[in-house]
Structure formats: structure tokens, C-alpha cells
Design a protein that fits this description.
- By secondary structure, this protein is an alpha/beta fold.
- The protein has three domains: 81 residues, Winged helix-like DNA-binding domain superfamily/Winged helix DNA-binding domain (Arc Repressor Mutant, subunit A, Orthogonal Bundle), CATH 1.10.10; 116 residues, Periplasmic binding protein-like II (D-Maltodextrin-Binding Protein, domain 2, 3-Layer(aba) Sandwich); 96 residues, D-Maltodextrin-Binding Protein, domain 2 (3-Layer(aba) Sandwich), CATH 3.40.190.
- It has 13 helices and 13 strands.
- It has a six-stranded mixed beta sheet. Strands 9-8-10-7-11 form a five-stranded mixed beta sheet, with helices on both faces.
- Helix 1 packs across helix 2 and helix 5 packs across helix 12.
- The longest helix is centred in the N-terminal third of the chain and has 29 residues.
- It is elongated.
- The two termini are 55 Å apart.
Length: 309
């Protein structure tokens, strides 16, 4: 079984004619017939009912999706090889950091490398770790330190600390005293919004959920809308609500009996060999610039590993 046989089979199905399929493939009708006979002999089944209009047998109908899957996989593989020839970078990031860290970085990177393909995948912590483990991504952005037992050999290049403020709507904030305690805050909101910003919830975040009358666990989008309507409060990473705070749509509060929260994230690779690719190092450096704007840089091994200008 070869791809020429499968492509001929697929084209005959589409054209319902050996003659039209042969013309499309730029081969003779005899060659098309020979390929199908060889394929049928290999499979031990008749694939077509020959006639003025060629139709599939039940065996041919059963085999068709498998043939197309093989053809599609081969095409994807060929395209992947073409991308490697042009240059390709694949990274994976926590969903909450794709927009604040990668958008502007990507624009600057592609000004310098306009022909390079860039693949950005997003997901939760475990998904990012799995992509790194399976070599689907060369670099990952995830919570740090990583406690996933399946992937322990990650090398941090840049570690960033981001504030995770507690926010409420302006209407709720206006009813609070200057230095509220958490009970006074919870008396004004119907629920606490729980978001999975961490691998394991810090005790402060867990305590807030325990104290609440009710709690909901939501993705960022609906959680933010709930907070904007004054229907809940929650710990949001600063990058998710910074614009809302600047615009006055949300207000940061600091209950006197609750300590501030932070989230540490890191850009990581599986091996230092990844830094032998100048394109990847340049892209990581661009993302590191955004990290410096977004939070506090706790560690920058990338800068230490890069040659002095």
C-alpha cells in the first residue's frame, strides 16, 4: 500500500470515474486501474462497483475514512517538514499569560524573523507540562516552582512574580470602611469567586472560600464579569484585571486580616540545548521584556546565558 494508491482511490471516489480521476492526477486510466487492483488485492476486498458511475462497495465505504486519514497525516507531515526548512518555534503558555506576554512579543519577533512559523499553544499547568514532556513545545510558561511529578527536569530561564489582588466592584468598595476586615467585605457580596491561578491553592485563597457564604469556580472571562456586576469577589492575577482597575470598573481592596497574594511563573525549557537556537532565544528575550512590565523579575538566567553585546 502506498500513497499513490490511496490518492487514486480517494480521487476516484470524488470524481465517481476512473477516467476523470486519471485526468486530474495526470496519469493514464490504465495506471489508475492498476493502482486500484493492487490496492484491492492487498486489502483482500473489492472497493468499487464499476459502471458508468463508479460507486463504493460496503468495504470501500468502510476503508475510505482510513485512507483519507493516512493521506491527511502524510500531508501534515510534509507541511511540518516545510515549516522546519523555513524555521519553526513552538511554545506553550498558561492561558492567562498568552495575551499579556506573547502578543506584543510575537509582533516584535516576527519583524525580525518574518518567515519563521510560530506555534503558540495554551492550557492549564498539567497540559503545559505534558506538552514539554512530549516535546510538543520547546519552551513553556507555567507556575513556578513546578510540582508536577511527571515533569521534574525543567530549567527556569526567567521567573516572574505577579500580584494577585482581591477585587470588587466600585459599588461594593464604596460601602466599605477605609481599612475593612474580611467579614465586612463578605457581608456585602453574595459569593467568592475561585480561580485556579495556582497549582495548589494558597492557604489565604482557600481560607477565603471557607469563610464565604457560597463560592463558585469559574474561568477568567465569566469570573471577571461576575466581579464587574458586584456579584462576587475574588483573587485575580493583575494582568487579568489591570485595565479594569485603571478604568475604575474594579477596585483593589486589602482587608487588614488578609496578607497580599502573589503568583510566580517561569519560562522553562527541558534542556539547555534549546538555547542553541538563536531564534528561540530571541523570542524568549522578547517575552522577558513583557515580563518586566507585568511583574517583578525574581530570576533571569536567560540574561546570564546570553553573550554580552
Amino acid at each position: 500500500m502506498d500513497l499513490d494508491q490511496l490518492r487514486t482511490f480517494d480521487r476516484i471516489v470524488r470524481e465517481q470515474s476512473f477516467t476523470k480521476a486519471a485526468a486530474y492526477l495526470n496519469i493514464t486510466q490504465a495506471t489508475a486501474s492498476m493502482r486500484i487492483r493492487a490496492l484491492e488485492q492487498l486489502l483482500g476486498a473489492q472497493l468499487f462497483v464499476r459502471g458508468r458511475v463508479v460507486t463504493l462497495t460496503d468495504q470501500g465505504m468502510t476503508f475510505l475514512p482510513f485512507a483519507r486519514r493516512i493521506i491527511g497525516t502524510a500531508q501534515e507531515g510534509r507541511e511540518a517538514l516545510r515549516r522546519v526548512e523555513r524555521g519553526r518555534i513552538s511554545i506553550a503558555s498558561l492561558r492567562t499569560l498568552v495575551s499579556p506576554l506573547i502578543t506584543e512579543s510575537l509582533l516584535r519577533f516576527q519583524e525580525k524573523y518574518p518567515a519563521v512559523d510560530v506555534v503558540v499553544r495554551e492550557g492549564r499547568q498539567a497540559q503545559i507540562a505534558a506538552m514539554l514532556h512530549e516535546r510538543e513545545a520547546e519552551m513553556g510558561i507555567l507556575c513556578w516552582p513546578n510540582i508536577d511529578p511527571l515533569v521534574v527536569d525543567l530549567i527556569p530561564l526567567v521567573v516572574m512574580r505577579e500580584r494577585v489582588p482581591l477585587v470588587v466592584s466600585p459599588e461594593v468598595a464604596a460601602k466599605l470602611p477605609a481599612q475593612p476586615n474580611i467579614e465586612e467585605v463578605l457581608a456585602l457580596v453574595p459569593r467568592v469567586i475561585s480561580l485556579r491561578w495556582w497549582q495548589a491553592d494558597p492557604e489565604i485563597a482557600a481560607a477565603l472560600v471557607r469563610l464565604a457564604r457560597t463560592s463558585v469556580e469559574l474561568p477568567t472571562g465569566p469570573a471577571r464579569r461576575l466581579a464587574l456586576k458586584g456579584e462576587g469577589l475574588g483573587f485575580f492575577v493583575n494582568s487579568a484585571i489591570a485595565e479594569d482597575v485603571r478604568a475604575g470598573r474594579l477596585v483593589e481592596i486589602a482587608p487588614v486580616d488578609f496578607e497580599p497574594l502573589y503568583r510566580d511563573t517561569a519560562m522553562v525549557v527541558r534542556s539547555k540545548a534549546a538555547l542553541e537556537r538563536p531564534m528561540l532565544v530571541d523570542f524568549i528575550a522578547e517575552i522577558a521584556r513583557e515580563c518586566a512590565h507585568l511583574g517583578e523579575i525574581l530570576d533571569n538566567r536567560l540574561a546570564q546565558s546570553m553573550p554580552a553585546a
